[in-house]
Amino acid sequence: MRKLGLLITSLLLLQGSVLAANNMANLIYRVPSKDNLISIKGSLNCTECKLGTRFNVTVWNMYKGKEPSWARDYLKLASESEIILGQEFLLQGEMQEILSSGQRESVLATSFYNTDGKATGVFTSSTIKAVTKQAFQSSDREPIVNTPKLSVLTQYPAENGQDVTFVNIHALNFVGIQPFTIQIATLLKAVKNIKGPVIFAGDFNTNAPTKTLIMNMLFKKDGFKQARYTGADDRMTFLGQPLDHIWYRGLNLVEARVLGEVEGSDHTPLQAEFELID
Question: Strand, coil or helix: what is 170?
Fold first, then answer.
């Protein structure tokens, strides 16, 4: 009986420590409400433009623009890509200036505001005006910092009359299998009945073989194919597992490459050219 009492006391103390840590994190990082996740930056001259038969997509975790060459690298990638799926934006300084100007529309989904009150999360930048914008806040949160991960779904009209759907994900990192699976399964459910082309890409934080296995199983079950890369596969890895991925459905993949020469982040950008299917 005494041992049981000690166990219960220990569990209560542990629970109290976790709650205290979460409360402290809430004082440091402010998480927006679900109806205030999306903001739009930038502008477009051509509001009636559409995706062509072929188009380029860049996927890049931008490490909050900490690396010196980020701005130069981003502007080059933007000149080559109709769509950019970016993770870890930080809306301050040079990054805020670039995302707020130029002839692109950027749909930002905020995960949290840092100690300086600056937003961070994921964004999808495009030369085409989005006809649909929807943010998804993970139901679970990262431990210690107590912040969710964000994903954003956008749709763009194409010249063949279809709408092309993009899901830009930043997956939970320091969590177990169940929260990771729930986040991906929730997003796959959102696009399950979409008839047109879908590109689902970003930083999946597949930092363990079991996460990679579950990701592959979920996507293949829903008819997605994974991009294979021409040349060296220099994607960022953890314990040998690549973290960034491109999945697609209802499109032809012309070519995908890992841009190992780009040094504007700790992650290496992925770039793919897709072709619409008539």
Answer: strand
